Amino acid sequence: METRKEITIYDIAQKLQLSSSTVSRGLQDNPTINLKTRERIHEAARELGYRHNTFASSLRKQKTNTIGVIVHELNSSFITSVLAGIERVTYKTGYDILIAHSSESFEKEAANALNLFHKRVDGLIASLSLETKGLDHFKQFEEKGIPVVYIDRVEEKSASTKVIIDNYSGGYQATQHLIDQGCERIVLVTANLQRNVYERRHKGYKDALSANGIPFNSKYVLIKDLSEQSGNEAALQILKMTPMPDGAFFTNDFSAAVCMKTLKEYGLNIPDDIAIVGFNNDTIGKIIEPQLTTINYPGTEMGEVAARHLTNHLRGLSTLNDISTIIIRSDLVIRKSSLKKGI
User: Fold this and answer.
1) What mean pLDDT, rounded, does the chain reach?
2) Containing structural domain, residue 198
3) In angstroms, how far is the first alpha carbon of the chain from the final one?
4) Which residues pair with 277 in a beta bridge?
5) Residues 100 and 157 in one domain
6) DSSP letters along 204-250, please?
7) N or C terminus: which one in the chain shows less Cβ crowding within 10 Å?
8) 179-206 mean pLDDT
9) CB of 58 within 8 A of CB of 65?
10) Cβ distance 272 to 300 under 8 Å?
């Protein structure tokens, strides 16, 4: 099959008997070219199938008008909402986004970072994998003066710009709510405590227990990958505990919902037998019966805030140099999964 020749501005110029410089300015809607001529140029471009050479233009300008985004997964309503928030801002400010996901692998995250670097993104937004330690694989961006904003899963001790929620407060609030419902044996189902979000939620859980005179029991802390399988595993572990827990705090709504379904299949009543609180305010929490109490984690707002600060920096409207940590507000959303009768 014969490959069609790529149409250039010279082809348009020849068709309209105009200079190539006039066609170039007309395609950019330069007001020095009168409106009727611009319309003729655009019409001819459509007829001939002309495509703007963004890559060549980017090389000339040393800008690609693209922002790289690295997330740890894609099959999450929270991440979907974060991406929606990022796209809402980048669309309005004229930036395209290139999305990569690490699948919770440090090796894949580092490869994604290098790939986006070579694609000459103007800036980067990144949420770290469970395996990630340190930020050395992002050094090439820093050395080239390419700004990076970290979101959600971050290295909290780094001086980089970060957009997070107060995970400690969320963990404390969730645990305190269960205690207020009369729970004394509260299981925490969470992920790798090396990652900031889970370490801080764990600390909030422990401190809420301590503040209420409830001894911390490490056997009640179940470290999982927060997948569907881990939700089932957590349910089976809870059923085997003696005495059985009367409350459970999951640091992920999906895992909480799967656990609730399994516990109900074994004849447990929620919340009478065990009250349950999740985290993220995912859609699944409104579908499961009873509806899931959770911590609202405003992903769309987080994405918007990160993208707004990054694009403002890139457009010279503000600077990231003076920004360290931006904390997004989160709240406890109380539903029936945690409200014990008579409390």
Assistant:
1) 89
2) 167-297+332-338
3) 75
4) 249, 293
5) yes
6) HHHHHHHHTTPPP-GGGEEE---SHHHHHHHHHHHHH-SSPPSEEEE
7) N
8) 93
9) yes
10) no
